[in-house]
Write a structure and sequence with these properties.
This protein is an alpha+beta fold. It has helices spanning 2-8, 10-32, 34-42, 53-139, 145-171, 175-196, 213-233, 272-283, 307-319; strands at residues 199-205, 238-246, 251-258, 287-292, 298-305. It has a 5-stranded mixed beta sheet. The chain is rod-shaped.
Length: 322
């Protein structure tokens, strides 16, 4: 309470101290008759006009006071300009973050719509083609060229349907809705491990079931893009994913690291995938970092406050509650 009062009335206290110092100086000078003594000392050197030294010092003091006042005014103006510039930058950063969030939201909505279109039309057409091909194969003479052609059509339709399923998973992982974040990430690791033949281990920690849909999608996409980069750009044999919630700080931490060919800062260039991951991390209120992994390869990390707690803090700031 005392410190708060001092900070609030600092200028008044400083002015009072200056006035008190001047008053004490005046009283002490009057009691000791300093001016008379000083004048008597200087009168001896009137030949060199030393008795005018007091007036010169007084003029110098006034000039220095005016100089200090002008510099203080300039400094205050510059400080106000910098504060205004910082506020503009913060507003622009917040605006860019909002635009990035809106763009990511539109992308997810478009992906969802496209996934539904693929599933409802393209996927069903593949199934219809396969069913008709199997029907023809079962009712044609054995062996015959037509029967073999129908068999090839059925196999091609089945391969095409599996490709569509893979695209559907890339566009909108249904496992997020059915299995939750950890289940979806584990499923992603297993399927990616089969395709890449690279060992992938998920290390979960803490309670992660209530992050919310936006955070789940953002975390999943960051992991998805990171695994894609591992497959494209490194010669890794092991990937480790740590995803945890630290209850003591209410922070969520995501770390993806590999034992690939190594981390070279000079070769790291932010591409579209990296920018997309950065925007998703920013949407969560965190920042994406890339560094050397303890395994010898590349480490991608991101930490952000638990969305539920972050929303509560923003609410208290807006409403003015402690």
């Amino acid at each position: 309470m005392k410190r708060t009062y001092i900070r609030k009335h600092r200028h008044q206290i400083e002015l009072a101290l200056i006035v008190a110092t001047a008053a004490v100086t005046f009283v002490a000078s009057s009691q000791a008759e300093l001016y008379e003594r000083f004048h008597g000392l200087l009168i001896r050197y009137e030949v060199v006009q030393a008795d005018e030294l007091f007036i010169a010092l007084l003029g110098l003091t006034v000039a220095l006071t005016l100089f200090s006042a002008m510099r203080w005014r300039d400094a205050r103006h510059e400080l106000a300009s910098r504060i205004a510039a910082e506020r503009r930058l913060k507003r622009l950063a917040a605006r860019n973050r909002d635009l990035a969030q809106a763009l990511i939201g539109l992308q997810e909505a478009e992906r969802r719509r496209f996934a539904h279109e693929l599933h409802d039309h393209f996927g069903q057409c593949c199934n219809a083609i396969r069913i008709d091909a199997v029907f023809l194969r079962d009712h044609l003479e054995n062996p015959s060229a037509e029967k073999r052609a129908a068999d090839r059509i059925a196999e091609s339709a089945d391969d095409l349907y599996q490709t569509v399923r893979g695209l559907l998973y890339e566009l909108r992982p249904a496992s997020l809705d059915s299995l939750g974040l950890l289940g979806a990430v584990q499923s992603l690791c297993e399927s990616w491990e089969e395709r890449s033949t690279i060992n992938c281990a998920l290390l979960p920690r803490g309670h992660l079931d209530d992050l919310g849909e936006d955070a789940n999608i953002a975390v999943f996409r960051i992991i998805q893009e990171s695994l894609s980069n591992v497959m494209k750009h490194t010669n890794a044999s092991h990937v480790r994913i740590f995803l945890g919630h630290h209850a003591e700080t209410d922070m969520v931490e995501l770390v993806i690291e590999d034992d690939g060919s190594g981390y070279d800062a000079a070769k790291v260039r932010p591409g579209l995938g990296w920018l997309g991951m950065g925007e998703r991390a920013s949407m969560l209120g965190g920042a994406l970092k890339i560094d050397k992994s303890s395994l010898g390869g590349v480490m991608v990390s991101c930490s952000f406050r638990h969305p539920a707690r972050a929303h509560a803090i923003e609410f208290h700031k807006v409403t003015g509650h402690d």
